[in-house]
Amino acid sequence: MANQYFQFKQFTVQQDACAMKVTTDACLFGAWVANRINGLDLKGKHFLDIGTGTGLLSLMVAQQTDASIDAVEIETAAANQAQENFEQSPWNNKLFLHNSSIQTFIPQHKYDFIFTNPPFFFNDLKSKNHARNIALHDYFLNLDDLLQSIENQINKNSYFAVLLPENRVEEFIFIATQYSFYLNEIMQVKQTENHKYFRSMLLFSNQINDSVLTNQITIKIDNQYTKEFIELLKAYYLYL
Predict the structure, then answer these.
(1) Cβ(204)–Cβ(159) under 8 Å?
(2) What is the mean pLDDT of residues 83-99?
(3) CA atoms 99, 103, 108, 112: torsion sign
(4) What pLDDT is recorded for position 3?
(5) At how many degrees (to 10) do helices 143-153 and 169-178 cross?
(6) Element (H or E) spanning 230, and its range?
(7) Virtual CA dihedral for 95, 53, 34, 86, nearest 10 degrees?
(8) How far apart are CA 122 and CA 138, in angstroms?
């Protein structure tokens, strides 16, 4: 049974009301997104988190940037818990929760950076837990709907990042090209040196890009976190 909360150095994520709990790959993605944002020349300061769940990604990005972040979550129990997590954090003045589907969400402005850990299972066996199905399966938000929403809400000369299972990366990149999004970087993730890559973190822009940066990261070697993982997560994890 998952813990009812996850304690980070500067904030706590309560998760008992959320179907999708804090995971290592989501934490890695949040740290990677914050790192990439700080390496970009972003003119604006408005970010969007699609499908925030517990609010984890927004909290991680808020810790490392001074942006205003809108977090959208369709499932009411998760949205309420994310709101509580935001209010208990040091950055409650710049985190704004919206209990809505991304398809019906009407923002007050467009966004300079969008990040999302979307529901990505397709034609997989579903559970009896409706909230968990919303969080994990793409029948409420498929990849085409996601990209359409990003296209509608992103500024010119801006970026978005997405976490996907390895088996859906090629499909997503193909669909993204139909919306004139260009892959800038792909970071493949595997759990140990003996495992295959199981997730990829992708960075796109709506600017033509001639080259794609390809990297890999392993979470653990010999049951110890790798140097690359520690470098990304040391600002967040209690014991790094």
Answers:
(1) yes
(2) 98
(3) positive
(4) 74
(5) 40
(6) helix 227-233
(7) 30
(8) 6
Separation in Å, CA 48 to CA 29, 109, 173: 15, 10, 20
List Cα–Cα distances, 62 to 94, 96, 110, 138, in angstroms. Answer: 8, 11, 18, 27
| DSSP symbols for 41-75 | --S--EEEEES-TTSHHHHHHHHH---EEEEEESS
Q: How many H helices and E strands in the chain?
A: 7, 11
Helix (H) or strand (E) holding 161: strand 154-165
- Nearest of 74, 45, 49 to residue 59 by alpha carbon: 49
The owner of tokens 């000369």 is: 157
Query: Structure pTM?
Result: 0.91
Cβ-in-10-Å burial (0-12, 13-18, 19+) of 86 comes to: buried
Q: What is the H or E stretch that residue 46 is in?
A: strand 46-50
Q: Which two tokens stand for residue 147?
A: 């990209």
